[in-house]
Structures are given as C-alpha cells and as structure tokens.
Amino acid sequence: MSQVVETNKLIFGMDIGDNEFSFTSSIETALISAESEIQSLKETITSVESLRPNCDKLDYALAASSGVLCGIIDIFLVGKPNKSQKTDKMNSPAADVVDRWFEKRIFDFAKLCGWDSKKDDSLSTAITFLEEKFEIPYDQRGAGDSGSDIFGLTPSNHHFKSLGHNPTLLGLFFSILDQFTNQSHFVSGGDVISLQNADGKSKLNGKSVPAKLFSGFVNWFGHLISDVSGSSSSKGRGMGIPSPFWSWTNDLIVIKRYLNIPPSQFDSIINELALSIYTEGFDIRFQATQAIPVFINEIITRFMYAIRRLIKYLATTDKTEISASDMWKACEPFSNATVKRMLTVGHGVFCMIDLSDATIRAFSKSSGAFNMKEFALRLNIAGVGRFTISLYGEVKRAVSIGKAVSEAQFARREIAIVENYLSGLSILSKIYDDENLVDFVDDFKNSDMYVQAFQKSVKLAELRKVSDNKILRTKSDIDSYFREGDRQ
Amino acid sequence: MSKKKSKLERTQELTELAIKKTNKKIDELGFYTSQIYDELNTIQKIFDDIRNVPSEEWLKYEELKKIRLNWKQQAEKIETDYKNTVAKNAGKGAAGVGIGVAFAALGPTAAMGIATTFGIASTGTAISTLSGAAATNAALAWLGGGALAAGGGGITAGSIIMNLFSPIGWMISGTALASSGFLLWKGKNDRNRLENIFILISKRDVKSFELAIVEINERITRIKDEVQKLNNAIERIKEFGLDYNLMPEDIQYELGSYVNLMNSSTQLLINPILGLQSKYTEDDFKTYNSFDKNKVDDRLRSLIIYLANLLYKITLDDKDKTLLWKSFKRNKEFLKLVEISKKDFDFSIIETVTDALQQKYHSEKN
Asked: Which residues of chain A from 411 to 440 reach within 8 Å of chain B, CB to CB?
C-alpha cells in the first residue's frame, strides 16, 4: 500500500481555495457553536414579540382619556386666534401666556445681542434695536414704502407675503438672495413679485462669500426673532411671523412659478386662506400655543405607561432583586411598540375631538354653511402632524411585523435542522469519548495495574462496536486466543 | 454586470463549498487509513506467529483479517469501477462531461477514504454481501455530487445519483432539483415558498457535511494516534518472544489488550461516518411498511425512500406539500428519472413520505 500513499492526483476539484468557509474541527467547539446557532434562531423567533404592541384595555382607556383631556384643553384654553378689541390681547388664555413668553424671549435675545435696557426697556425699543442690528433689504411694510400700493402690501400682511420673513427653507434662500442682490421678493395674489434696489441701506458683512452667506443667515434669523412679536411700529400684539406650515403655501406658488407651472386655483385658494388666517393672528406664536395640548398629551400618555409598568415591576419583583437598570428597562416609555400604540390612540382621540370641534364651529359660524376659515383657525395642525407621525409608525411596524413573522417561521424550520445536527454531535461526543481508554498502552509501561489497563482495552473495543465474539474480555479469552494451537 | 445572487443561490454555494471541503477531508482520511491498514496487518502477523498452528476453532478470529481484506478489496473496486464509469461515459455528452472531465482521476487514497467514509458493514452483517455494490454506488454518487458542485452535469449527472438511490444521492440532488425548473413558478409567493424549501434542504445538507467533517477530523486524530500506538506495540511484542506460555501474566494481559486494540483500530476503517449516512434507509421503510395498514406498493419503495431523504427534517405545511407535489408532477425530467408516470404520481405519495418521516422522527426520539 505504500505506493498508494504516494499517489497524488487531482480529485473532486479540491484545488479551489476556500478559506472563507472553515468548519469547526472539534466536537466540543461544534457543540458550542450549534447551541449558539439555536439560541440566535430562538432570538429571531422572539424578536417578533417585541415588535407587537402589548397594550391591555386599561392602557387604551388611559391613552384615550389623555386624548380627551387634551382635546378639552385645546377647545377651551387654546381655541382660535382672537384678539380682544379692548385690550388688544388674545382672548385665548393659553395664547396670551405664549405671547408674553415670546416677548420675554425677545428681551433676552436683544440683551444677548448687546441691547442696553437701562435707557428704555420697552418692547418696541428692543425690537428696533434688533431690526437695526439685523438689517435686511426686504422689510417694505406698506404705505410709504415702494410698491405697497400696487402689490397690496400692508403692515398686517407683509410678514406673510415677504418670502424673507417666512420661517421655511425657501424663506431662508430668498432672504439670502435678497441680501446679496438688494432685492425684495413677495408672493401676492398667486404671483411672485421682486422689487429691485429695495433698500440701499442694507449691507452684508464679511469679505468672502462664505462669510457673507453666514452673515445673511444670521440676519435672516435675527430679523425673524425681531418680528416674532410684531415689528417696532406695532401697537399691542402686532403681526408676528407666519406659522411654518401655512408658509409652505407660499413656497408652493414660488416653486411652481419658477418651474413655469401656473399655480392651480386650489393653490391660490389655500394661499389666500393661509393669508387670511394669518391676519387673524395665526402666526408662529399661535402655532406654538397649539402645540401645548399635543405636548401635554404626549407627556401624560408616556407617564401613564411608565407608572403602570413601574408599579407592575415593583409588585412582581422581589425586594432584594430590585435594580435601577432593570426598573428603567421595565418602565422606559420610549422606543417600544406598546407606548407607541398608546400614543397613536391618545393623539388619535385628540385629533378626533379637535376635528369635531373645528367642524361644528365651522358650520355654526356661517349658520349651516361650512366656513373654511373658521375651520382652519380651529384645526390643531400640531396635533394632526403628531398623529400622522404615529400612524406612519403603525404602518411601518405592521410591515416589519409581517416580515419578522415570516423570518420567525423560517427560523422555526431551521431550528429543526440545527437540532438534528446537534443530536448528531451528541452521538459523536459519546462515540469518540475514548481519550482515557486509548491510553492503556502507556499504563502497561508505567504501572503494575495491568488488569485495569486491559479492562480499558475491552471498553475501547466495546465503544468502537467491535463484535462481541471478537473482544477479549478475560484472561481465559486471551489464553484461548493465543493457545488455540496447544489445545489441539 | 453581475446579478445579485438570490438567497437560494448563496445557500447552494455554501453547500457546494461544504461538498468540496468534505471531499478534501475524505482524501486526507484515505491517506491515514492506508497507514493504519499496514500497521494492522503487521501486528496481526506477529500475533499469528505467537499463536502456533492454525486450527478450525482458531479461524473465527480470522474474520478480522477478512474484514480488513474486504475493506481493501472494496477500496480497489471503487477505484476500478470509477475508472470504468469514466471510460463508459467519456463520449456520452453531459454525463460524460460531468464525471469524465471534471475529475481527471480518482486517486487510491480517495478510494480508501470513500471506503472508510461510508463504512463497510454494520456490526453483524455479512461483509461479503455488502462489499461492492453499496460502497461503489456511494462513491459514484459522491462523484456525481462533486460534478454538480463543480458546475457540470446538472440533472443529467444527477440522474446517475437518483438511479442509484445510494446513501448520499439524496444530499446532492436537492441542489440538482432546485436548478432543474422546479422554481420556475409564476406566482411570487409560490416561488418563494419553493425556494424556502430548497434553502432549508441546502442548509440541512451543509449541516450534514459539517457533522461529517467534525467526525472525519476526530477519526483522523484517532488514526494518527493509533498508528503510533500500534507501531509501539509491535516493537514491544517483538521483545516478548514467541512462546505465549512462557510469558508472565502481566505480559499476557498486555498481549490481550493489543488484540483488543487491533480490533478497535480496525473499526476506524469500517464504522461509517454518521453525517454521510442515508437519513432514511431501506430498513426504516420496511419498519414503516410493516406498521402501516395500507401497505405501500413496493414499486414506489425507491421513490419514497428518495423523497424521505430529500425532505428529512424539512418542516412542511399543507400548502408546501401541495406545491411540492405539483412541482414534482409537472417536472417531466424528474418523473422520467424516478420512472413514474404523471398520472401515477399521486398526492398520496407525498403524504406517505411525510407520514413515514413522522414515524422515523418518533422512533428517533425514543
């Protein structure tokens, strides 16, 4: 056979290098890796559960109650932008609080920018300071300014119509463009109007283009802050910055105009509606007011979720086993399907109440006919936006659950295969458990316990499934094997 | 531009890689088995010298020699049969390409590795009746699988496997089937279902090869160690002299132990490798058929054993079963290979297979 060993022929295409696929060589390692494989398959199966919301009736009831409560807050404390004729303050208590809050922030911002409040601490002085500090060329506000008569610009609508005063990306773009080119862009009556040489006084700081761009951005932002509670010449509440959501109706018209697509009638109607509710006081301050009940709803729902889980954790965990990290894990009201489902319910109920209120009032305002303006003034955009995000999350989770379920089904089938492999390995680990049996050869050399050493050889033969009649088990078996000739 | 590989293709690539790796290991095993074979013959010769004149009674111990001789003959037969198959198929198109060209030659160490891998006989079975057909077919099937792995042959080479219904034919045929029109289904859902079944088959096969490699590695370690031990034993026995009766008791025990060692080491040649054994055997079928009230037609025996091996440990729901049945039924090539008409390929065959497998799983548990 020796020449056989020397033969080296190509067989089975084994010349292919396949380093990327290596097998485990020892049974022990293979067993460990098979077990971990099963573990990871089991994790795939259980991961489906973490994607499914686990809300009980009480969770749903609590979330819905939170939605109802916040809906009531929205109806009675937020309402719609409505100025009192006598005091020029908002009739809505929440909006009034928010207006004051914004005024205080203007003082803070002006001080931060170097305003000296000791000389005159009125709001209009602070605003004047900021308007001068962040001077822009597009501040034509109506009578006396160029083009105001022709384009219908008035002090009450110019923040809306002037693109540079819009808190949107396009607003930022036009603000910087206007600052660079000394122009002024407006949207009025479905058209985009640009005034050349708008204001000769405005100048951009900085020597390089990036520096000027930065300066343009700062001017845009600073000027927005100066206008958030009305301009320096405003009396009372003043006209603030339009809400970002409604400003998009301007953006839509601008984009269509520049793409040479005439804005549709719908675009114009929506734009007009946005303008009219802005003139009623629906500005960024009122938008912030609307966010209050939505925010409260968010907080209450998450809090309810956390409190219930905390109580459950404390009730079911032995005092000695309580740990801060486990507790946090048990009641953390973020990133889990259950709290997200509760939020969908909470915001859904809130939106339902808000929409019903807005619809009823829209009808009652015009005695039976639907009053779109009243509806838009009452509609809580922040609530609708938040509910949309929740709904999107629900759809996304439903899709991932569908995918995870099929993955889990496949993992279950794969487990059967790996378990079979594992049982094969267990058989091998028994068959090849002969390490201490084979060493009997050394026992003969090193000790006098030859009978025990012989017994090991018997066990080895048994393990290797040598036929019973061939195994030499006793001294007489050995004798007969070697003395058969003598017996004859 | 290369198309992104599907999950099934990626899994099948892993299966092919596993086949190559196993082939390599089998060849390595063959190298060591030839060494231990030499050592076993030498030690047997020394024992015979001590054992005086042969007698009738004494002959029963000669069975061991016979086992080893059979093993060697079988290895040689595998080699010869292989060469004949290559010669026969050389001019026969696809099958010839699959076997004849992809593999230039089957080396003797590989033949010995194959003989060792598939085992010569289970304990108590007459070796002479098994040596030959079973292992040779296994070897040829193995080569068919190798051909598939190398990209040649396709179902044509696979036909050799299926006609043989040999111990490992079932393992490779999963890949062959998947690439033979089984997955050309119109509905995306149905195609995904079928693909998942074949992915699972491939994954199961990879696991079987992994198991085989783990065992072959263990086997090689044992053989290397025992070649050394047998060699040392030979040296020691030479010092004991030839007269058993003159030897002290401890030496006699030692001699007896070496006989047991010789026997045990011989088993390393003939005990089959677990991972490469047929999952569902003729015996399993016989047991099933003896329990089942509706006796299965014996003409379907081979087909049922084949399908049981193909679907072993693959969990199927009713929809899977129906889909699989339809895909088998409309695959003309497959029906031709298993020698059954479309009309006769009844759904009850699939049900019988799953039923038979359930019984097998049940018996494995107990």
From this structure: 412-414, 416-418, 420-421, 423-425, 427-428, 431-432, 434, 438, 440
Residue A166 and residue A205 share a domain:
yes
Choose among B172, B192, B170, B134: nearest CA to B12: B172
Under an 8 A CB cutoff, do B38 and A1 touch?
yes
| Residue-level pLDDT, tens digit, chain B, 366 residues | 456 778 888 887 888 788 778 877 888 888 899 899 989 989 988 888 888 655 554 555 566 777 777 778 777 777 776 666 656 555 444 333 333 333 445 567 777 877 777 665 433 333 333 444 555 555 555 554 443 333 333 333 333 333 333 334 444 456 666 666 666 666 888 888 888 998 998 899 889 889 989 999 999 999 999 999 999 999 989 888 888 888 988 899 999 999 999 989 988 888 888 887 778 877 888 888 887 666 777 778 878 888 888 899 999 999 999 998 988 888 777 777 677 888 888 999 999 999 999 999 998 887
Domain end (from A234, A249, A282): A282
- Both tokens of A25, joined, read 């060589």
Which candidate from A11, A13, A454 shows the least CB-CB separation from B253? Answer: A454
Helix or strand run (H / E) with residue A186: strand A184-188
> Is the minimum CB–CB distance between B244 and chain A shorter than 8 Å?
yes
Closest CA to B39 of A370, A406, A2, A415: A2
Look up the domain containing A156 and give its range. Answer: 90-282
Closest-CA distance, A36 to chain B, in angstroms, reads 14
CB spacing of B257 vs A457 below 8 angstroms: yes
Residues A417 and A458 placed together within one structural domain of the fold: no
ipTM over 0.95: no
In a domain, A402, yes or no: no
In terms of Cβ atoms closer than 10 Å to its own Cβ (0-12, 13-18, 19+), residue B49 is exposed
Nearest chain B residue to A443 by CA: give it: B254
Determine contact, residues B244/B256, Cβ cutoff 8 Å.
no
Chain centroid to CA B139: 8
Kindly report the pTM of this predicted structure: 0.69
Q: What is the DSSP letter of A137?
A: S
Instruction: Assess whether A109 and A248 both reside in one domain.
Output: yes
Rounded to 10 deg, the angle between the B301-310 and B347-365 helix axes is: 60
| Pair (A95, A118) in one structural domain | yes
Q: A352 in a domain, yes or no? A: no
* B259 to A481: CB separation less than 8 angstroms, yes or no: yes
Q: Do B256 and A460 touch (CB under 8 A)?
A: no
Q: Which chain A positions have a beta carbon within 8 Å of B250's beta carbon?
A: 444, 448, 450
Overall number of domains in chain A? 3
Using the Cβ of B263 and the Cβ atoms of chain A, whether some distance falls under 8 Å is answered with: yes
Task: With beta carbons less than 8 A apart as the criterion, state whether B271 and A427 touch.
Answer: no
Residues A156 and A270 in one domain: yes
Q: Chain A residue with minimal CA distance to B110?
A: A11
Give chain B positions within 8 Å (CB) of A27. Answer: 214, 218
